[in-house]
């Protein structure tokens, strides 16, 4: 980060919103966000590895506090899936929902860590000047997750209804089977299918990204003087506590929308 004499609000925000990128090959059109990929993979390994260790040491006797916590989370998500998903593939959807919830929650939770302290650690400990620590503030992450769910939804549509049945649904619902209505039905379904991954991804991205911006603004306020430091610290602590609810709620909403979309793929209009 620039020194204090060079630091401006613009440079401060730009520093924290700049990704560590690399080109796949020289002259390539697209680049990889290294910080997003590495952080996402590490958090996925840590979170799922933690659950695996707890399950491995699980006992049928008196459970430990850690085992009780994991069992509570698994049972809660399983019940939510049972209440929402009415297909015959609960054995796949429930574990998928648990994986999505835990992974997205872990990625969201990185937004609670002090942004300036994390930037200092990444720069002085690892020599990385730019490193965005919150993967879900990268729209590529949220859109990739949503697109994966969208592809699963298409797969189950074809698998459950057959290719002919799904095509019939596209052209004959919701307005009827009259051939004159086919273009209207197809347009309506096209808009529905396109809007699902867009709304699914942008809802998560928008909420977490907005939270990050608020933390940056509070950090800038804290640098304006003694009064700014006091009010910035108090408001920052309050926003961090409130943000715990936001990151958890957004992970839950993303998971529930996934279950709803997969459930819709198993239903016929």
Estimated helix fraction: over 70%
**Count of alpha and pi helical runs:** 8
Order of helices and strands: HEEHHHHHHH
Counted up, domains total 1
Total strand segments: 2
Q: Which structural category do the helix and sheet elements fall into?
A: mainly alpha
Q: Largest beta sheet, briefly?
A: 2 strands, antiparallel
* Residue share in β-strands: under 5%
Shape: globular
Strand order of the largest sheet: 1-2
**Unreliable runs:** 1-5
Distance, first to last CA: 56 Å
Gyration radius, in Å:
22 Å
On the 0 to 100 scale, the average pLDDT is 88
Organism: Nitrosomonas ureae
Family: Belongs to the ATPase A chain family.
Membrane topology: Multi-pass membrane protein
GO biological process, one term: proton motive force-driven plasma membrane ATP synthesis
Describe this structure in words.
The chain has one domain. The chain is about 75% helix and about 0% strand. It has eight helices and two strands. The chain has a two-stranded antiparallel ribbon. Helix 6 runs antiparallel to helix 7 and helix 7 packs antiparallel against helix 8. The longest helix is centred in the C-terminal third of the chain and has 41 residues.
